[in-house]
Specification:
7 helices, alpha/beta, ten-stranded mixed β-sheet
């Protein structure tokens, strides 16, 4: 992996989102690009364009930046990355911001989204559904990963997400992996379970497969709430599963 985007949807980037992005950038040796934009839905606070005089040489030129921009947040992001030795740059997304972020995602390996308190508001929903690279919803508190939980329902999308996660972040192979089977059936067919076990053993040192009693979102949420320092992986966005506690990896088949 070479390039990670961190999209700032909040009024100001949360420390945990930046820390988490720096963590993934560090373990994968990837460049981190902070994408900032004016978003009326989340009321980003901005400062006058004249503050651009204090920006570093790596910033976009003043001619390409709107009259009002979130300079202080951009500077804080750069300072944090520099202090941690993370190669980073900053990009201000002109209007239409959503279209420009999606275009940027086409040539990125991974996008991390700093969503306010895990909320799925319309802008974020559109971003998740149309992103042209895998997306991680940044957590509120988690800044490192000890376990990967794959939400598995037997669909091609779920398997694709599993593959994408380990292809992008093979460094996580040393972590514990758990497949949570969510289906109306009681068990995974034996041949399918054998294939899952074989795949897990090739990529993770420690792994388990768990089947929940039912396939409701509430049951899955209760299971995940007991987890700490855990990344959730799924093929498609499940309503109600974006919680502030865990990073959520989403990709489309």
């Amino acid at each position: 992996m070479e390039k990670i985007l961190l999209v700032m949807c909040s009024a100001a980037p949360s420390n945990s989102a930046v820390d988490f992005a720096c963590y993934l950038s560090d373990i994968s040796h990837s460049k981190l690009v902070g994408c900032f934009f004016k978003n009326k839905e989340t009321a980003i606070n901005v400062v006058p364009k004249r503050s651009m005089a204090h920006a570093g040489d790596d910033w976009d030129s003043p001619e390409t930046i709107a009259e009002n921009i979130p300079i202080s947040s951009m500077q804080t992001f750069e300072d944090t990355c520099a202090a941690r030795g993370i190669p980073a740059s900053v990009k201000y997304m002109e209007e239409p911001a959503l279209d420009n972020i999606l275009a940027e995602s086409r040539f990125a390996d991974l996008m991390i989204v700093d969503a306010p308190q895990g909320t799925v508001f319309p802008f974020l929903q559109k971003l998740l559904s149309a992103a042209q690279c895998p997306v991680i919803i940044a957590p509120r508190n988690c800044t490192a990963i000890d376990e990967i939980v794959f939400c598995y329902d037997g669909s091609p999308s779920a398997v694709f997400a599993m593959k994408q996660l380990i292809y992008l972040l093979p460094e996580l192979g040393e972590k514990k992996a758990t497949i949570v089977h969510i289906s109306t059936t009681t068990t995974i067919p034996e041949e399918e379970k054998k294939n899952l076990t074989s795949w897990l053993s090739r990529h993770f040192a420690c792994s388990t497969i768990t089947t929940l009693k039912d396939n409701s979102t509430a049951t899955l949420s209760d299971f995940l709430q007991k987890k700490q320092e855990t990344m959730i992986v799924m093929g498609d966005l499940l309503s109600g599963l974006i919680t502030p506690a865990h990073p959520v990896f989403i990709t489309h088949h």
